[in-house]
């Protein structure tokens, strides 16, 4: 078994600490647009990162293959690719595979080999096992067992592009401007050490969920221990990973709406709860009692996305920034307003959300009905 | 028989300052001081002195000082004075050595080998005086997950009864009979004023204190003293006491002379009779029997209050705790080897059990491994001395702590270890009415509430430093602890890394 | 490359698009040293520290969205933002004026010791935090809209005015922990707040004669900048929030 922890956290710190700039756009009408604007926006927050990680998540970019899981894999060693492909063939039906298209870019050194596979879980997925669970397990197997191979994206009709470098350089390398999606998030990273490992960049992905995060969650130790109790392996040792698993647990496995999950991550204070109606009090109290170990305490802003939805959330005393803005069908989220203004000077509205209050952008029902976007089951 | 035990303390009286007011004579319940009117002088019988400082504190002219006798035995690392004197005492009496308070032997205090983290740069410390800082704690069984009604935001999940405390500190079991009613009243009123709970211990609850029931944990121990339906109904929670850190595995014995009229009425036994607490509960010889008693109490209280099971921390605490949770305990209380008592055989107190720090870590880890940590809260007791110990206990995985000795010190106790004599000069561990009046419940309440306030502020300071503003973010968060000077094995059990690592 | 469109001895107009803050601020320093008294910055998108280290009372008009720490450590210049400002505006400012024709982010006026800041619309968290006053210096912050939590947190001096003009009819301020830890200075608040929204160190009073004078002066200046009717604004009652204790923690410690 390979030690992903060591790869990602060479000094064996409690965790990998980083801060950063965040950006996200969703076009709620489902209209797809190039990644160019997102690149511009995140580049404008260059000074929030330090060149040790940049990345993008894009939704709606593979419409022709929307029924297939798209697995993005980075191969650090030549031997890891054939070994992984044997594994993939054994567990999936591979409909198509190709090298992820890249170009030479400034500041990009020693990139891994990058490959994408469109796969179906049938007929390998056993009866009674949810396909999503099946895929997660296989991804974890590759990531923890095949030396040199790392799956960094595994959702349907979406993809993550990330690596070591400033986001603008990563964008250039991955030709991000050539993709068209209806939802984009971007991350510029400022880690406190130099993992120098592509897999460590953000956004972090699990199925089609992606998380980009800014800040440092001081409750990390207990958040992680709690999630480990539900079978999650925190191999990346980052706050981002913990947020992603927490969202997966609450939303996918426990079936709670994202607005409720937000109340777990950034709950109202007890004295605020005391001023709610009896019914609301009971709800908030129960959430805090049951999910006490998932309170994300300390400074954070996260942009969480999955098919059809983008959520921005800050901690309950708002120690990290987030600006939201709307123009027509588009919702923007950014660490700094200037980045939104740069790509859309004429906004309908720009505002700074209250700490702990989620900002949710959802595809309109019409967009889903028209079949523009495949809604998740 | 002539005793070969020399006096332990020396009474120094400054004759120039002494005004012969006889306060010391009246204050000393061990008959050290006496006044001879003929020569107008105060004398001291030093062999009676226990070093409780009552006379020193109350001497109006600061004429008194008590210090250790400088008497030396020939140095011997093996046959230390305490061991020699214990043998002498037994040779002269043929008895089991009895003592009070907690283990005074220099076992490693793990609290003193754990340091706490603080935020620097990558995350901000939070200002606990200006920004909200939450210590509220709910104790009791929690469901594994929250379920909502289909398609709505209405709760489907119902949470089992919980105890609500405003800081993770409760008063440990101190039974009426061992301590006085005034002590019980002070504890009850302080718990009520501050927003926490006090624990009756096994001696029942005086009717005068029923009004503090919302802040009361009533104990059901092997002697079942004063246990009746009203007692169970009035409380916020019921604690089954299996064992206690000061004397794991053995019962208790309240001598008949302490069973006064009031104690008799509360314990519901005739005055003047010995009150024996058997070593085991004779309806619990196994884990399934514990379950039977837990559910008997749940039935008796109609499932309206959490049932606590308290055990002494011993070798297999992790496995025992796991069984207790499965048996239906909503809260587990663990009492470590430094836990105190009103009376215990010295040999037991000083040699049986394990340190609470290791027990918390082992139990928390085991319950998590088994996926049942949410099913019970964990309360740690036995040697919690200050706010830092509370913080460290919570970081290791405790939901809250019990304090006993610290609360008694707040009331005046100087840990002279004479509880078993019933002569407590501070009026705490006695039922002698001439002594119990030394605790004024108004002042006692104030002193206890002050202690809880002070510790709460300090806990908030430490939390803020770590960058969290709710206690739950520290609970079980062992990354906020580092060890100094512990072995690999100790760190493995505690689940902490070494400082600098 | 951005180009300088107009440049006379005392007037500079600069297109900031694509300029890194270091370059932009170097140009400002240079222009001010050469005697420019009026500067216009266009297409500003997030450049930080504008107005810092300019030691002359220069006028700077910013079109766009200036970055964090606008006017940090500022000592004299006058900045007008035709748009919104981000976080850290007026950080540890000593002297000067910042006028924002829009909203502003968190910790506006952090530790300011002097100068004036006027914001037409809302502001973020912890605005006016630890503002101080010293000798003749008394900072003033006037917010046209409403503020978020921790407004005036451990304020030690200065004047903070919140007008609530962006609130709808009957809508109350939402901020909690207003003035928490406040031990100096004064907040004048127009609009509704409940007692639970205030920090425990804060007292509420009606305005006295001296307060009216300070408030009228502040609102007058605000209205002059943004074209509101001061008389209309002053018609509605204000509450005065003041520190109950100069040493709120005098009884916290045991010795």
Keywords:
heterotrimer; A: alpha+beta; Glutamine Phosphoribosylpyrophosphate, subunit 1, domain 1; seven-stranded antiparallel β-sheet; five-stranded antiparallel β-sheet; C: 255 residues; alpha/beta; Pectate Lyase C-like; twelve-stranded mixed β-sheet; 15% helix
Description of the molecule:
The complex is a heterotrimer of chains A (377), B (501) and C (255). Chain A is α+β, with helices and mostly antiparallel strands and 377 residues long. Chain A has a domain at 15-62 and 159-369: Aminohydrolase, N-terminal nucleophile (Ntn) domain (Glutamine Phosphoribosylpyrophosphate, subunit 1, domain 1), CATH 3.60.20.10. Helices cover 29% and strands 27% of the residues of chain A. Chain A has helices at residues 4-8, 36-43, 80-91, 131-145, 167-174, 220-228, 239-253, 258-265, 270-273, 278-290, 337-343, 365-369, and strands at residues 18-27, 33-34, 54-59, 69-75, 93-99, 113-120, 149-153, 158-163, 180-181, 183-191, 204-206, 209-215, 300-306, 309-314, 323-327, 330-334, 349-351, 359-362. A seven-stranded antiparallel beta sheet of chain A has the order 8-3-10-1-16-15-17, with helices on one face. In chain A, a hairpin with a 2-residue loop joins strand 11 (204-206) and strand 12 (209-215). In chain A, helix 2 (36-43) packs antiparallel against helix 11. In chain B, 29% of the residues lie in helices and 15% in strands. In chain B, strand 11 (216-220), helix 5 and strand 12 (237-241) form a beta-alpha-beta unit. Chain B folds into two domains: 9-95, Alpha-Beta Plaits, CATH 3.30.70.20; 137-144 and 167-475, Alpha-Beta Barrel (TIM Barrel), CATH 3.20.20.70. The N and C termini of chain B lie far apart (61 Å). The mean pLDDT of chain B is 95. In chain B, the strands form seven sheets. Chain B has an eight-stranded parallel beta sheet with strand order 9-19-18-16-15-12-11-10. Chain B has 501 residues and is an alpha/beta fold. In chain C, strand 2 (11-15), helix 1 (21-33) and strand 3 (38-45) form a beta-alpha-beta unit. Chain C has a twelve-stranded mixed beta sheet, with helices on one face. The relative contact order of chain C is 0.09. Chain C starts with a strand and ends in a 12-residue tail after the last strand. Chain C has three helices and twelve strands. The model of chain C has no long low-confidence stretch (mean pLDDT 93). Chain C has helices at 21-33, 209-226, 230-235; strands spanning 4-7, 11-15, 38-45, 59-65, 75-82, 95-100, 116-119, 140-143, 156-162, 184-190, 202-205, 238-243. Chain C is globular and about 55 Å long.
